[in-house]
Amino acid sequence: MASEEELFASVDALLNEEPRLPPPAERARLREAAGITQARLATALKTTTQSVKNWENGRSEPKSPRLDAYQRLLNGWAAKYPAPDAAPTASVAAMAPAASTEPAASRRETADAPQAPAVAAAALARPAIRPAATSRRPATKKAAQPAGDPRFAHGPLAVLDGDGCAYGVDGIVLDCPASTVVELVEWTLRESGLGAPKLNRYGKDSDPLIVLTAAAAVKLGLPERLEGHEQRRSLRLPEDHPVVEQVVKAKWRLTQRGFGPWARIYRKAQGRDRQCVQLAVLSWDALDERSWPGVSEMEPADIARVLSVYAQRVITPRGSTAVSGLELMTALRPPTRAVRDEASGNWVSGHNPGSLGTEPMDPAPPEATAEHPVVVNSGWTGGFVNEEAYQWVRPVDLLTDEECTLPFAVGLDLNTAFLAAAARLVVGLSAPDHFVGPRFNPKIPGSWLVDLSHVEVDPRLPSPFTPDGTRPTEPAWYQTHTVAYAQELGFNVQPLEAYLRRETGAYLDPWHDRLKTAYVDTLADLGVTRDLSDTEFLAAMERHKDTDPAMAAVLAAIKATVKGGIGKLRERPQGKKYKEGERWPALQRPTWRPDIRAAVIAKARVNMHRKLRNMATMTGLYPLAVLSDCVVYPSPGDSPLDFLPYAASGKPQPGAFRLGPAPGLAKLEGVQTMLWAVDLMEKGYNPARHIKGGDAVLDEGE
Predict the structure, then answer these.
(1) Distance from C-alpha of 196 to C-alpha of 205, rounded to nearest angstrom
(2) What phi, psi does 655 have (nearest 5°)?
(3) Could you give the CA distance from residue 107 to residue 115 in angstroms, rounded to a whole number?
(4) pLDDT tens-digit profile of 287-299?
(5) What are phi and psi of 167, to 5 degrees?
(6) Other C-beta atoms within 10 Å of 386: how many?
(7) What is the DSSP string of 309-333?
(8) What is the per-residue burial (b if ≥16 Cβ within 10 Å, else e) of 531-552?
(9) pTM score over 0.85
């Protein structure tokens, strides 16, 4: 029989044993289910991508303290993404993390997070969920509570109709008894079970969104339409409107936007309880037709489906897609985190490394706009960075006879080109410093005053240094990627001045990763997947909008989120009353960063020019025109397959344009019969605009 000393030794050995990780294949599955790349995981764990690969194929194992952090991460993912064949047996109570296992720092970080909604006694007597059959139009799925955070059992949002039915995710129909806006807000926070968990451990949970149909708006005392002579973005109810007075009387507050198409109603947080509800009024044009095509005319259950998918894949809408795109950046890179105060030992709010912080930052004068106080107050006359997307048409006299006889002009559009440019993009995180006569360094983000007029490029291609494709004639301000490309072409660059940033980081990386996954997954839902051949891909893209109008609307909203979010980084002043030199509201947020916008556009334009050069080298083809992310080529047939370069094996040649669903790859944008040749070009015909249809570029709207 074993002695007591031997038993205690065995027990101590078990206690000291290192944590056991799931099998390598399960580690890879969990990471992929969370949508995290091996490179991002390596960065989080302060290791190399190769080490992560080794852990996932069983070649090596992590050591403490990295082992403990990796196991905690995998355990968290396992709770969120159980194996497909695993039967969910845990109760709601079991799903909630035990308070004793949460470190003090984490408890502090979630101080503003809303708690699980309290269920009133009346709610116990009356079911919160109606059968799906009671809806005006049967939902596409059976009513069932979606799995996820138990505090938000009914998903991120609901669409409220005039009969009191609130349509949510996966066909859920809630019974909402509210007859006023105040009652609606209180029901949403106390009984609805709506909301979404934070996207970053240092962030905040998404507030619940209630979308009001026209009938619901009228029932709550709101006008069916919000009319006025000003722009839609500045329309709002007057302060003496009965609904606004009711809200104020009940001790609720409205943001500075007032009660408009996107109204935010809140109270100051009390302890751990965050009290805020977002409203969107459909009949007040809350969902712009350009970003949400056809959604406002859908049935409430279908609207709920569209917005819920967007909320789950991107973010719960908080305004226009431009606003949501900007909010997503902050949600994924919160400005603060909990840090321990060495003096007191308490946890306090501190700067979150890699974020833009909490305070707005003035740009360098050449990075600002002409009306910015930095420019007006300093009397700056040194010019501005002009990093914009291409708008270029090849001159008529550079068209060859052979090109004029080709029967078709085919437009190729790059999928979310600006999103692709945001990948692994290093931007400045600190204030700009001024340098005179610096040596160019392609790894330092900033703005450089350089003379690139000596750089020779083929006149049949647009210049890579100007938006209109013309050759520069004098020194001008350029973003780092543009100057680096001149160096890549083999030309010497000698900056005269520069405004550079010492602290840098890939701020947009998580934003890119989330939107890329959302875009690719939504295309897959429409039948456009990565495993299609080029011929199958073109056929699938031809019919994808008709496959499922709801998912097609989600796809359009994701694309608008990308362009709007980038454009919002340099939002201009709005309204006729603005005077040059005044600070406008957008300047008060840390995300007013025109230098980051310039970096994205410069990289996208350089990427486009690099592909144009490679195409010319491989095929001898030159574009007729380029507008933003669309390029038009003369073609012997009506398909890109007639002129794109392929290897003998049938695979696309690397470096040139390739077809596919991923960001940065091309799709067919349009085809025109090229019977006009020189004649119509001389009359000002712009083939890029004609095929592209005047697509808005990086909208800086609301």
Answers:
(1) 6
(2) 95, -25
(3) 13
(4) 999 999 999 999 9
(5) -90, 130
(6) 18
(7) HHHHHT----SSHHHHHHHHHHHHS
(8) ebebeebbebbeebeeebebbb
(9) no
How far apart, in whole angstroms, are the C-alpha atoms of residue 655 and residue 665? Answer: 11
Structure token digits, residue 619: 């095929």
Tell which wins on pLDDT, 656 or 61.
656
Give dist(CA 316, CA 257) in Å, integer: 18
| Token output for 577 | 């009353």
One-character DSSP codes across 365-408: GGGS-TTSHHHHHHT--S--------EEE--GGG--HHHHH-SE
What DSSP element (H or E) covers 193? none
What digits encode the pLDDT tens for the residues 573-629?
987 788 888 999 999 999 999 999 999 999 999 999 999 999 999 999 999 999 988
698 Rama sector, left if φ>0, alpha if ψ -120 to 50, beta otherwise = left
Angle CA(359)–CA(362)–CA(366) in degrees, nearest 5?
A: 160
Are 360 and 227 spatial neighbours (Cβ–Cβ below 8 Å)? no
> In this structure, what token pair is assigned to residue 663?
């960001």
> pLDDT per residue over 197-232, tens digit each?
999 999 999 999 999 999 999 999 999 988 764 445
H/E stretch holding 174 reads strand 173-175
Beta pairing partners, 319: none
Nearest to 454 by CA among 437, 476, 435: 476
Tell which residue, 72, 318, 325, has the closest CA to residue 201.
72
Per-residue pLDDT, averaged over 29-53, amounts to 83
Q: What is the DSSP string of 641-682?
A: GGTS-B-TTSPBPTTS--BSSSTT-EEEEEEEE---HHHHHH
In the chain, the N- to C-terminal Cα span, in Å, equals 78
DSSP 402-469: HHHH-SEEEEEEETTHHHHHHTT--EE-S-EEEEESPPP-TTS-EEEEE--TT----TTS--TTSTT-
The beta-carbon contacts of 458-462 under 8 Å, at least 24 apart in sequence, are 458/613, 458/616, 458/622, 459/395, 459/398, 460/394, 460/398, 460/616, 460/622, 461/609, 461/612, 461/613, 461/616, 461/622, 461/623, 462/390, 462/392, 462/609, 462/612, 462/623, 462/626
| Backbone torsions φ then ψ of 252, nearest 5 degrees | -100, 160
Average pLDDT over residues 95-103: 35
DSSP, residue by residue, 32-68 = HHTT--HHHHHHHTTS-HHHHHHHHHTS----TTHHH
Query: CB-based contacts of 101: which residues, under 8 Å, 6+ apart?
Result: none
User: Residue 165: helix, strand or coil by DSSP?
Assistant: strand
Number of H-type helices and E-type strands within the chain: 23, 21
Q: How far is CA 62 from the centre of its chain?
A: 33
493, 450 contact by CB (below 8 A):
yes
Least confident segment among 118-122, 391-395, 497-501, 535-539: 118-122
pLDDT in tens, 467-509: 999 999 999 999 999 999 999 999 989 999 999 999 999 999 9
The residues that bridge with 350 in the sheet, in sequence order, are 337
237, pLDDT greater than 60? yes
